[in-house]
């Protein structure tokens, strides 16, 4: 089964958006690929296509760096299988950088 | 030079008045500290006596509310959710507030107003002018005073029946546990990563609920940790973030009312926990986006069995060195970068001399546009660091043009000087590195150096009329 190109949206908050030209909401068309898209592939795609400079401020290895929480439909990705979570239509993926100021 | 004598006279006058001001501040601190000593039942918890951590007596148990308390708290007493029972619980509850800044001020204000029994107020810092837009317990007259003392003095005017314990020092691994043990609930209103791990671990080891708030720019976050079997801060963030990814309020900016809102919600959760209603943010994070006017509730992971401090086999059984763990210091002061060697840097005094001698050069200001709008040196060429980092052709072309223009005024110097400046002298070092790597062909030989301490050093050492921010 080959999944067709799909339009996905995801968001950055807590300052993570500053690594993406300050844009909080992104709508992108992911290319078709034999396997369904999971978060691991999505991160790889983001790194190649959206993160132009200093990827280390967002990623560490194949995952996000410490201090960034990934939320899938307003739930901690830890509850959903983290990198292995398979993206569904209409899924809302949010990357938030934790704040420390006060 | 007639101006010279005038400058000396003004300098002496400023020094005289500053001395006078220091004296007044010291007297004010003594007066405020005296008040604090007077209202603490045992007289041992005054400001100077807030030896860290002084042993505190238990709050007295009350069987009923006095007539004065009934009048004072009547508007919340008639709430069935609180009632007399809840109010009596508040009066028996002690809360440790870690940080008397943008979050701690509104939090402490509402807890004091609501009749909490005791407020421990921790802060190592003194009040500065740039705090006043968000740290609303402090006022102009409190500048230079310890924040913990200033907060306690304002709160005492609001509700003198609460017991206030100011601690003028940083929470440290050697004192935190003993201190946290003496309180029922802890509110993390701090501004740095090491302190957040320290407060978390102390709360886990002492078994206290932790109401944690944070704010930056136009966003806020809130979670209640270590409460009724829920996760702790380390369950969520087992590893600290790389220090270079952490932004403080001075660099990132913060709209004062945003920590105000978050601090108020923190106060609400403390009151719910203290009165027995329970918190809504156990295993949930509240995210506030002030720009969009949206609150979001995020379902978090449960307590992790493999958590280093609250898990089944904890490796952290006593407090550690959190600055080493996080690779950053336990303050929100700006970091000082040491990227360049001293031969690639000049001081503001040296730069002033170059200016006076009219040495041909280009001054490159690499701050973001929003900061250039605040203040600038008129002759500077402005290219934000981000544009240099992405090697923006448009901007590099502009830089080249300006270098060529200036160069024409020289007799073909071997390497043309470019001085790079920013706010504090960190970004300017990064920019020098980038310029040093530019191809020589396009620019001719260029000698790039950065100005140590940036425009803030310029303001404090060369031109006192230049704004500080």
From TrEMBL, chain A:
Q: Which UniProt keywords apply?
A: Cytoplasm, Isopeptide bond, tRNA processing, Ubl conjugation pathway
UniProt subcellular location: Cytoplasm
Q: Which GO terms describe its biological process?
A: protein urmylation; tRNA thio-modification; tRNA wobble uridine modification
Q: Where is this cross-link: Glycyl lysine isopeptide (Gly-Lys) (interchain with K-? in acceptor proteins)?
A: 102
Q: Which domain of life is it from?
A: Eukaryota
Predominant place of localization? cytoplasm
GO molecular function, one example? sulfur carrier activity
For this chain, the family text in UniProt reads: Belongs to the URM1 family.
Q: What's the name of the protein?
A: Ubiquitin-related modifier 1
From which source organism is this entry? Answer: Anas platyrhynchos platyrhynchos
Record lineage? Eukaryota, Metazoa, Chordata, Craniata, Vertebrata
Automatic annotation (TrEMBL), chain B:
Residues annotated as binding ATP: 102, 123, 130-134, 147, 191-192
Recorded catalytic activity of this chain's protein: [molybdopterin-synthase sulfur-carrier protein]-C-terminal Gly-Gly + ATP + H(+) = [molybdopterin-synthase sulfur-carrier protein]-C-terminal Gly-Gly-AMP + diphosphate; [molybdopterin-synthase sulfur-carrier protein]-C-terminal Gly-Gly-AMP + S-sulfanyl-L-cysteinyl-[cysteine desulfurase] + AH2 = [molybdopterin-synthase sulfur-carrier protein]-C-terminal-Gly-aminoethanethioate + L-cysteinyl-[cysteine desulfurase] + A + AMP + 2 H(+)
The protein's location, in the record's own words, is: Cytoplasm, Cytosol
Q: Does the keyword Ribosomal protein apply?
A: no
Question: Residue ranges of the Rhodanese domain?
Answer: 357-467
Cellular component per GO?
Answer: cytosol
Name this polypeptide is given: Adenylyltransferase and sulfurtransferase MOCS3
Q: Which organism is it from?
A: Cairina moschata
């Amino acid at each position: 089964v080959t999944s067709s190109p799909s339009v996905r949206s995801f968001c950055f908050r807590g300052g993570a958006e500053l690594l993406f030209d300050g844009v909080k909401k992104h709508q992108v068309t992911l290319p078709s690929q034999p396997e369904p898209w999971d978060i691991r592939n999505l991160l790889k795609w983001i790194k190649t296509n959206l993160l132009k400079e200093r990827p280390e401020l967002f990623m560490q290895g194949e995952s996000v760096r410490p201090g960034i929480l990934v939320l899938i439909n307003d739930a901690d990705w830890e509850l959903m299988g983290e990198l292995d979570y398979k993206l569904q239509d209409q899924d809302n993926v949010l990357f938030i950088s934790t704040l420390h100021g006060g | 030079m007639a101006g010279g004598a005038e400058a000396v006279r003004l300098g002496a006058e400023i020094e005289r008045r500053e001395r006078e001001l220091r004296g007044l501040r010291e007297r004010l601190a003594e007066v405020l500290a005296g008040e604090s000593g007077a209202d603490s039942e045992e007289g041992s918890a005054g400001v100077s006596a807030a030896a860290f951590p002084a042993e505190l007596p238990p709050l007295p148990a009350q069987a009923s509310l006095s007539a004065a308390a009934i009048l004072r708290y009547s508007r919340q007493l008639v709430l069935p959710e609180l009632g007399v029972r809840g109010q009596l619980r508040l009066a028996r509850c002690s809360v440790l507030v870690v940080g008397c800044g943008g979050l701690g001020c509104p939090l402490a204000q509402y807890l004091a107003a609501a009749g909490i029994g005791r407020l421990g107020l921790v802060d190592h810092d003194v009040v500065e002018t740039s705090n006043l837009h968000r740290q609303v317990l402090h006022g102009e007259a409190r500048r230079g005073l310890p924040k913990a003392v200033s907060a306690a003095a304002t709160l005492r005017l609001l509700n003198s029946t609460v017991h206030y314990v100011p601690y003028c020092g940083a929470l440290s691994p050697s004192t935190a546990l003993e201190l946290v043990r003496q309180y029922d609930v802890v509110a993390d209103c701090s501004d740095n990563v090491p302190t957040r791990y320290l407060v978390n671990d102390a709360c886990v080891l002492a078994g206290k609920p932790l109401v944690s708030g944070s704010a930056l720019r136009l966003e806020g976050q809130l979670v209640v940790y270590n409460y009724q079997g829920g996760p702790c801060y380390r369950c969520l963030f087992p590893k600290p973030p790389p220090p270079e990814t952490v932004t403080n309020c001075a660099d990132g900016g913060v709209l004062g009312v945003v920590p105000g809102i978050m601090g108020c919600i923190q106060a609400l959760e403390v009151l719910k926990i203290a009165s027995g209603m329970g918190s809504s943010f156990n295993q949930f994070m509240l995210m506030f986006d002030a720009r969009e006017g949206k609150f979001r509730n995020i379902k978090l992971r449960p307590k992790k069995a493999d958590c280093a401090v609250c898990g089944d086999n904890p490796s952290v059984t006593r407090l550690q060195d959190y600055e080493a763990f996080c690779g950053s210091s336990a303050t929100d002061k700006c970091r000082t970068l040491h990227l360049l060697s001293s031969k690639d840097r000049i001081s503001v005094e040296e730069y002033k001399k170059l200016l006076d001698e009219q040495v041909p050069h280009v001054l490159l200001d690499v701050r973001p546009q929003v900061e250039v709008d605040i203040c600038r040196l008129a002759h500077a060429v402005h290219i934000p660091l981000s544009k240099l980092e992405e090697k923006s052709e448009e901007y590099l072309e502009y830089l080249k043009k300006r270098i060529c223009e200036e160069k024409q005024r020289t007799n073909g110097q071997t390497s043309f000087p470019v001085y790079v400046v920013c706010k504090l002298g960190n970004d300017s070092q990064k920019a020098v590195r980038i310029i040093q790597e530019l191809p020589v062909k396009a620019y001719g030989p260029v000698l790039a150096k950065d100005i140590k301490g940036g425009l803030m050093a310029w303001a404090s050492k060369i031109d006192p009329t230049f704004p500080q921010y």
